[in-house]
Amino acid sequence: MTTAATDAATDNLAALESEAIHIFREVAGEFDRPVILFSGGKDSTLLLHLAIKAFWPAPVPFPLLHVDTGHNFDEVIAFRDHVVAKYGLRLIVANVQDWIDDGRLTERPDGTRNPLQTQPLLDTITEHKFDAVFGGGRRDEERARAKERIFSLRNAFGQWDPRRQRPELWNLYNGRHRPGEHVRVFPLSNWTEADVWNYIAREKVELPSIYYAHQRKVYKRDGMWLTEGPWGGPRDGEEVKELTVRYRTVGDGSCTGAVESTASTVEEVIAEVMASRLTERGATRADDRLSEAAMEDRKREGYF
Amino acid sequence: MSSLLRLATAGSVDDGKSTLVGRLLYDTKSVLADQLDAVTRASVDRGLSTPDLSLLVDGLRSEREQGITIDVAYRYFATPKRSFVLADTPGHVQYTRNTVTGASTAQLAVLLVDARKGVIEQTRRHAAVLALLGVPRLVLAVNKVDLVDYDEETFRVIAKEFTDHATSLGYAEGSVLAIPVSALVGDNVVERSAHTPWYSGPTLLEHLETVPVAPDPHDAPFRFPVQYVIRPRTPEYPDYRGYAGQVAAGTVRPGDEVVVLPAGLRTTVERIDTPDGELAEAAAGRSVTLVLADDLDIARGDVIAAAGSAPVATDELDATLAWLSEKPLRPGARVLVKHGARTVQAFVDELVSRFDEQKLSTVDYPETLQLNEIGRAKVRVAEPLPVDEYEVSRRTGAFLVIDPADGTTLAAGMVGAPLPVLRSDRDVVSPGP
């Protein structure tokens, strides 16, 4: 079948797709041991979709790595395993619980495990000698992320130093690094939340069901609708309600809130996202609210 | 589908660049309620009575503490007419390298000056960098016009001085536009100002929405750096061999005769593969996989080019370098050069000239090239590279200079002399055969 050629310069999504595919192939060409961070959320699912396209008809030449907080949504874990089986991928899971069990990490008093992901991530990168780590981060998510390069060098401690970033020129990416260092790679850097959803619609990308409206028992904490789970809750005084909700981001259950929504198709989600007066993180992520520089501080420590 | 404009901002410290970008985002309703809440909270904490829009974009802790922008950041906004990717680059002299970064992909640059100060040294430096990197269009935003009582004469003098400077850098007059703005108040950024009845041109946003964006020329000679060889070796595709890459220039169609460089082997394009089906043609910017008629030995780093107009591979580059490292360049330096998908060892033979962006002249045979300096050099590469002139092709005329010891990007390299002033009668092209 021959499809009509589209003009990459005038088709924004085609241009973003071509750029992401270019980045995947550069990494495959320049690094020894790349890995894709995969949480089952929409950004990492899109990342995987683009990786599959970049190497078609050959298989994706990298494994996936999931840092599992143990507080994930069942639907997301099921989706993760379904995708891995469907494409015959290799999945490495770093369970935060293992680090807690053997004393390398201590549970936080507030019960959230999101900040606890950093050490298992860095330990696993070291253990497998990964030299390039793909992430689904986008620069439109947060103002510290807006500073992130597409190829972002991390030192042997996994740290990001925003003052010492390499200039990134044209589409020539410099992947040089010394032993022990690694490079975080963000093929979705130039995508916005709207681009992500429009592309998901165009490519009919399958997502975990919780991105679409469903009935759920939730309780309100710090202005967000949280769901029951092993992360604790509801506490006394937190009233459980059954609402029609969906998720805009998927992460640790302790800090990822649902939004009230009846959007049950991709088209309805796009309409809702376009009309929203809140960013996806502002709407549903408690961990970004901790301080004015919460994301920057976590990134400096090695978080994505 | 709206078109995409990639733009960069530049300007010196305290001229209000972050405020202008914040104003663009705010007035195009690209700022959502929670982001504005955060800025309002932070502004109140700092004792301000109105939200400080620069806090929308200064993303790093130390930037907010010092009230300056340290590192280039990328912003995204859209109007019904167009989508924008904005590279917001810092103005400090020590961060000029970030201007180079932002300019390398920009189709338009917005340069800010403070109306009270006019065109200053840093303005001239930035304009030269933008010209060098081949940014096709410039906008001069004459900011803080409210602080000069919206005086037309002040604006005219600054606009004329800048246009003259840009013209001497090679810009046609029609590709430079000056706009009187106040980022703080919002004059002529998105909303037309009632304070400048003497200004009849577009607001900044109107201009950004309507300025023609030259697409990559489709009739340029075809260039395709091979990034990766796709060999599935699966039961379904036992003999498949495809060459994956992004079209760097021109257009390719099945049946086209091509030459593989540097080996010089000739063949034809059999198919243009994508996971969504074969293409009838692929133009610059498109990532595809080429299947060729003959089984040749082709590896990452090779370049597939139009047979009729292939570049000649050369082992001596006559190039312009924008030096981005604290470690100065001296003749004899051993470096790496990354061009397309190939990285080769290289040796800087000679520093031919250094550019003085104030006097728009060159200094011959300088001993070093320091951080943020621009100069012309002879670079000898270990393997011949099929380069084009940067002026002709921004993608295939560009290269990185990399430190082999620690991997730092040392310089932005451009083949040839993209600025007229860097050209000289004393030809630096290596002697012919």
UniProtKB/TrEMBL annotation, chain A:
Protein name: Sulfate adenylyltransferase subunit 2
Keyword Nucleotidyltransferase: yes
Similarity comment: family membership: Belongs to the PAPS reductase family. CysD subfamily.
NCBIfam families attached to this UniProt entry: CysD, PRK05253.1, PRK12563.1
Enzyme class of the recorded protein, top EC level: transferase
Residue ranges annotated for the Phosphoadenosine phosphosulphate reductase domain, each copy included: 34-257
EC number(s) stated in the UniProt entry for this protein: 2.7.7.4
InterPro entries reported in the protein's UniProt record: PAPS_reduct_dom, Rossmann-like_a/b/a_fold, SO4_adenylTrfase_ssu, Sulfate_adenylyltrnsfr_sub2
Any Gene Ontology biological process: sulfate assimilation
From TrEMBL, chain B:
Enzyme class: transferase
Annotated EC: 2.7.7.4
UniProt xrefs under CDD domains: CysN_ATPS, CysN_NodQ_II, CysN_NoDQ_III
Protein's GO biological process: sulfur compound metabolic process
Domain Tr-type G, first and last residues per copy: 2-216
GO molecular function: ATP binding; GTP binding; GTPase activity; sulfate adenylyltransferase (ATP) activity
Source organism superkingdom: Bacteria
Pfam families found in the cross-reference section: GTP-eEF1A_C (PF22594), GTP_EFTU (PF00009)
Keyword Transferase: yes
Keyword Secreted: no
The entry's keywords: ATP-binding, GTP-binding, Nucleotide-binding, Nucleotidyltransferase, Transferase
Name recorded for this polypeptide: sulfate adenylyltransferase
Lineage: Bacteria, Bacillati, Actinomycetota, Actinomycetes, Pseudonocardiales
